[in-house]
Amino acid sequence: MKILSGIQPTGRFHWGNYFGAIRQYIDLQHNEQAFYFIADYHALTTVRDPQALRGFVRDAAIDLLALGLKPETATLFRQSDIPEVTELTWLLMTVTQMHLLDKCHAFKDKKAKGIAADAGLFTYPVLMAADILLYDSDLVPVGADQIQHIEVTRDIAGRFNQIYGVEALKLPSPHVVDSTAKVVGLDGEKMSKSYGNTIEMFEPDKKLRKRIMSIKTDSTPVEDPKNPETCSVFTLFKLFANDEQQAELAAKYRAGGMGYGEAKQALFDAAMAYFADARARRAELERSPDTVEDVLREGARKARDVGRQVLDRVRSACGL
Ligand code: ADP
Ligand code: TRP
Questions:
Q1: Which of 124, 149, 171, when mutated, tests ligand 2's pocket best, judged by the most ligand atoms within 8 Å of its CB?
Q2: pTM, to two decimals
C-alpha cells in the first residue's frame, strides 16, 4: 500500500495543522510505504515573496523531521524538485472537464467573494491530481476539506484511462485523518492562518506563553465556578493532557477560586512538555541545514525514480 500526502508551505505550522493532519501522516509512516512532500508549487498560488517561500519550505522540512518523520522510513521531498509533476499536470489538463474545476471550493469561494482568481488557483486540483497519480498512490491521508480534490483526481484518472483504453493511472482513495480533531484558535473559532488566531508549534517559550495568555475567555470572576467544557483553554488542554490531568483541571474549574491565568499556565506547561523532544530535535536540525537539504535531495531522487516510470507509461499511452 502506497501512502502519499502533501502539505503547503504557506506559513509556520500551528497546533491545528499538527493535531488535524501532521501527527496522523507521521503515524502512518510506520505501517506503509509513505511519500510526503512540501507543496511549494501549490504555495505559489498564495505566497508571492520568494524569500518568505524559501523560509517556509525550509521550516516545513525541519518541522516535519523534528515532529517525527523518519527519512529512513518515509520519503520526504520538495514538490518542485520533481519537474515530471508539471508535465503530468499538462497531460491531465487535456482530459479534465471544466465543470469539475468550476465546483472546486478554493476557486469557487474566491469567486463568490468577488476576488479575481488566477488560472493557477483554478487548475490547482489538476496539479494535485498529478501529485497523487505520478507515484501510483493508493491512499491519500487528508483533512476533510481535501476530499473533493481526491474525487476530482479519481475522475481525471478514470477519464484518462477510459479515453486511451488502458489502465495507465491508478485510482487513489482518500483516508480522512481524525476529522473530530477540529482545533480551536485564540478566539474560539477554528484555528487557521487565515483567521490570525493560531498558536505555532515552535514559537520561542516567551512568545508561546504570551500567545496562550491571549486566548479569549469569559469574564467570570476568579472566585466563581467555571465550566471547562465551554472554555477554549480547557479544550486545548485536552489535546496535551491524559485523563487524570484533564479531570484534575476540570475539578479546579468547577470548584471556583481558580482564575483563567492559572488554567492558561497549565496549558503552557502541558504544551511545552508535549513538544519538548520535538523542540530539542528542531534546535539540533537548525544547526545542521545540510542534513535537512540532504534529506530533501535523497527524497527527491527516490520520488523521481518512481515518477519517471509512471510518466513514461502515461506519455506512451497518449501517443507521445
Ligand atoms: P490553515 O487553515 O491554517 O491555512 P491549511 O489549510 O494549510 O491551514 O491546513 C493544512 C491541513 O491542516 C488541513 O488540511 C487540515 O487537515 C489541517 N488543519 C488546519 N487547521 C486545522 C484545525 N484548526 N483543526 C484541525 N485540523 C486543521
Ligand atoms: N491541497 C492540499 C492542502 O491544501 C495540499 C496538497 C497538494 C496535497 N497536493 C497534494 C495533499 C496531494 C494530498 C495529496 O492541504
A1: 149
A2: 0.95
